[in-house]
């Protein structure tokens, strides 16, 4: 880890401690086989990947049942606006997290199902295989 990154990480740990956040928020690398368990153990997943790129962790989190918040505008119209926050806007993210956490359990469960369905139907293995086959037919 670069010195500036280590300093930043230490600052984050201090901030977390000052705000009584659990040490469990710091995850080191884990074997891929454990990733679904980690996602499933959490209600909300926040992804800060900016627009113009697509992070597969977004789909993994949705498929695992997490209420997934993104700042990636390419998902606008694909998922409910409640789960898209303004890039670089911590206040908007905080507002969305508070709103989601205050939803009734039934509504949270409905959103989890919708996000999982989106992940499976739009980005599932079957969809990927079909895309590959379509491209191979073009050759």
Could you explain how this protein is built, in words?
It contains 6 helices and 2 strands, in the order ααβαβααα. The N and C termini lie far apart (44 Å). It has a single domain, classed as Glycogen Phosphorylase B (Rossmann fold, 3-Layer(aba) Sandwich), CATH 3.40.50.2000. The chain has a two-stranded parallel sheet with strand order 1-2. The mean pLDDT is 89. Helix 5 packs parallel to helix 6 (125-138). By secondary structure, the chain is mainly alpha-helical. Helix 3 (56-63) links the parallel strand 1 (44-47) and strand 2 (67-70). The chain is globular.
For the biggest β-sheet, the strand order reads 1-2
**Structural class label:** mainly alpha
Q: CATH superfamily name?
A: Glycogen Phosphorylase B
| Oligomeric assembly | single chain
Rounded radius of gyration (Å): 17 Å
Number of strands: 2
What is the 3D shape? globular
Q: Helix segment count? A: 6
CATH C-level name: Alpha Beta
Helix content: 40-55%
Separation, N- and C-terminal Cα atoms: 44 Å
Average pLDDT level: 89
Which consecutive residue ranges, at least 5 long each, have pLDDT under 50? none
- CATH topology, by name, is Rossmann fold
Indicate the proportion of strand residues.
5-15%
Q: Provide the number of structural domains.
A: 1
* CATH architecture term: 3-Layer(aba) Sandwich
Q: What's a concise summary of this model?
A:
The protein is mainly α and 139 residues long. It has one domain (33-138): Rossmann fold (3-Layer(aba) Sandwich).
